[in-house]
Structure formats: structure tokens, C-alpha cells
Known about the structure:
The protein is an alpha/beta fold. The protein has nine helices and ten strands. It has a domain at about 5-140 and about 220-290: Rossmann fold, CATH 3.40.50. Strand 3, helix 1 and strand 4 form a beta-alpha-beta unit. Helix 1 (about 45-55) crosses helix 9 (about 280-290), helix 2 crosses helix 3 and helix 3 crosses helix 6. The longest helix is centred in the C-terminal third of the chain and has 21 residues, at about 210-230. The protein is globular, with a radius of gyration of 18 Å.
Amino acid sequence: MRPDHRNVELPGDGVQLAADVWTPPARAPLGVVLLLHGGGQTRHSWHGTGRRLASSGWVAVSMDLRGHGDSEWAPDGDYTTGAHLEDLLSVVARLRETWGGIPLALVGASLGGKVALLGMGVEHRLAEALVMVDIAVRVETGGSRRVQRFMGSAPEGFASLQEASDAIAAYNPHRRRSGSLEGLKKNLRLREGRWHWHWDPAMLAPGRTDDEQAALGAEIYRRSRRAARSLTCPVMLVRGLQSDVVSAEGVAEMRELIPHLSVADVQDVGHMVAGDDNDVFTARLLDFLDEALPRTDSKEVS
């Protein structure tokens, strides 16, 4: 039997967030896995992972962050880490109401992983396990800036899906190019004859001076260190070995802060680990979940 799949809306902090939910076929779930994508991505990044998680007995929830995909844009233009964090706290509260009594794991890539880590620092019992996908307390400046440059590189959109595909290939040469361009339509929208990324342009609008941005980055780093040091639940860091965002030094710092940290290196992929090699990533995730979260009796999905 195939997993049940449906589209839902989840309550953020003043915004409604679009989500996909996969549930196991004809069995009580082992737990809930909330999948948080990176900046500039959408919930569709996790489609293959969500389906496989549900086939293995887990409820998988993949949501679009505010301003991304089909989620609402922030009316006040607030896309700070704090705003995403408040959304996460609201969503987890709803998931606990819906599937209470079974463990919950947070899986976050890049921005999503940073928000998940900070959330665990605010509420230590926010989740029973945490998986950070190519994101660490220490983020390499060069890699981070390259992501930001890519996100802001096509303010006027693309003339065709092929042009968008070429831009992605130039940014991420590690990924095998699909023979079809149809999948790009999940991340792009056609407006006035041009294809635009499906996120709110306000996310990239300059709002701080360089000094203010540096001060904010330093504060987030301090908060991330505190959050990491406080973790007692099972934690896994999945790193693409060709990533320019997470370095060996960043991994070493994570091991220092979280002595029980599990690290899974994925060969021949960069920052976009789940997209570059979804089969390997999902296999590592399932192994971690099976070991980290004990199986308990739980109610059937309603």
C-alpha cells in the first residue's frame, strides 16, 4: 500500500504555512518527522524523503517556510531567524496536538537546520531528536555568501525553464541534471512571461548595514553555541563532503559542543545533500531514527 499523502495548512506566527503530510499505510506511526528546507527552497525538496519515511512507518511533514513556496508572505516583511523560529514553535505545538504521545524529530537543511537548533535552545523538549543537514554552529562565510549571491542573481527572472536549469547547474555542478524540466515548476512561477523563483523578494531586500549584519551574525553564532551545548537528545549532522558551507573545523566544533553527536558524511555531494543524493541521505536518516527513537505503542492516525 502507498502512504497517504495530503496537503494541509499549518499555523505559523501570523502566517499560514503550506505543508505536505505523508502517513504510514494501515499502521500506527512510529513518530513524526518535521522536515524544514533551506533558504530559497520549498517543501518539495523533501518529496522523496517524505514518501520513504511514511513507507517505513513515520509520519512525515514537510512545510514551506514563510515567504517560500505556497506559504504566505510575511505582511511586515519579517524573515529574520526569530520570525522563522516563532513559526516553528507554533507548528510543533500543532503537531503535538495532532499526534501526541509519539516522538517527534526535527530535520532541517541549511536555514531550516539553524532554526531547528535555535528552537531546541529555546525549548529543550521541543523534539526528541534533531538532524542538521549541512549546517553547523559555525558557517563558512564564503559558502554562505555564494548561496546568497545565487538567490539574488536573477531579480528579473528567467526567460525559460532551461535558462533556470542552467543557472542551477552553474551553482551546483555536483547534481545530475534531470532530463525533464517539469520539476522546476514546483520552485518557479510564471509571471508576465518570465519564470521567477517562488519566494518573496523581500527576503533579499537590504535592511541592515554591514556592521549591523555582522553584529546579528555574531549574536546568532553565540545563541547557536548555547543551544548546541544544551542538547541532550540524539543529534546527527549530515554533511556533504564537497560542501563549502560546513567545514572540517565546523564539524570539530560541533563534536566539542555535542559530545554524543553522530556525523554522517555523504560522498560526492555539496551543500544540497538531500537533493544531490536523496537515496543515500534518506537511508542515513532512517538508520538514525530507528536507533535514536525507541518504538512505542501509539494511537492510529485519525
